[in-house]
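Bumping my old thread because nobody answered last time. Still need a sequence for this structure:
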């Protein structure tokens, strides 16, 4: 099991940073070899379920996630918080996305995640953490840059 966090600042208003990070199908374009399908009908909220299918052919797996906390940011500057529970057969854990006011009218993004990959022994926690931090860091950057 690994736990990591990322922090980013983006030249976006809170609601736009939130939208870019919580439109789940967009994550498929930001994470290599991944396609995201929302299982429950819109709009996104507590109870929304989506599946990220990552990999190629027989080496692909599903990462099933459910939104358990959904608090979008408000116009008065109250931070937004979304918590996802990862409930796949291979990938377990949780992720939290927090969007709060940052300096100079920018948005500050905090991404926290606990990740367990069932098939990997604890010996691989170090490489898994470095890989996850790199992949998710690039994904968050891309999601925030792309409208």
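Sorry it took so long. Here it is:
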């Amino acid at each position: 099991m690994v736990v990591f966090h990322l922090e980013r600042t983006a030249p976006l208003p809170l609601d736009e940073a939130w939208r870019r990070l919580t439109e789940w199908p967009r994550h498929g374009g930001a994470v290599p070899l991944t396609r995201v399908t929302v299982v429950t009908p819109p709009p996104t909220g507590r109870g929304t379920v989506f599946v990220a299918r990552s990999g190629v052919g027989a080496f692909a797996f599903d990462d099933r996630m459910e939104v358990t906390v959904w608090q979008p940011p408000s116009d008065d500057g109250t931070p937004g918080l979304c918590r996802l529970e990862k409930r796949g057969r291979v990938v377990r854990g949780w992720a939290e996305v927090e969007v709060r006011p940052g300096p100079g009218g920018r948005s500050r993004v905090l991404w926290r995640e606990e990740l367990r990959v069932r098939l990997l022994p604890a010996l691989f926690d170090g490489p898994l953490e470095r890989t996850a931090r790199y992949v998710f860091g690039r994904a968050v950057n891309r999601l925030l840059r792309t409208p």
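The chain has three helices and seven strands. Let me know if any region looks off to you.
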